[in-house]
Design the sequence.
């Protein structure tokens, strides 16, 4: 079974001899797709907090949807945590576009095993 996919490859320059190209898929089976950026700072637990940032997985545009997300936190207090989950549904904006809310608990990590809470809103 073949699924039509459209997109483009982004090439910045040739300054790095071991460079790679970024592939941006713009539609899947005829439906436009999009992603959102997300970032934040975890709760303060076990004497520290972590920063995190990432990009959601693609989802179709123009229909009710959510996005899966996954990233790892900054290294603080000698360790990092995984941040992953599924955003809430799209929240429409009055002038068009939308964003998603997300929240969760990080993976367990650290010499003194612990978790952190996180929450936020994706980019538009």
Sequence:
């Amino acid at each position: 079974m073949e699924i039509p996919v459209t997109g483009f490859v982004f090439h910045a320059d040739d300054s790095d001899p071991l460079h790679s190209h970024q592939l941006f898929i713009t539609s899947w089976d005829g439906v436009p797709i999009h992603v959102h950026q997300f970032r934040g700072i975890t709760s303060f637990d076990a004497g520290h907090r972590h920063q995190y940032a990432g990009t959601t997985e693609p989802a179709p545009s123009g229909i009710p949807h959510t996005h899966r997300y996954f990233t790892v936190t900054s290294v603080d207090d000698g360790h990092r945590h995984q941040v992953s989950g599924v955003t809430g549904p799209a929240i429409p904006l009055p002038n068009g576009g939308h964003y998603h809310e997300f929240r969760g608990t990080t993976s367990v990590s650290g010499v003194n095993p612990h978790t952190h809470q996180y929450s936020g809103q994706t980019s538009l």
Notes: The chain has one domain: 34-121. The CA atoms of residues 92 and 98 lie 4 Å apart. DSSP finds no helices and twelve strands in the chain. The longest strand covers residues 22-28.
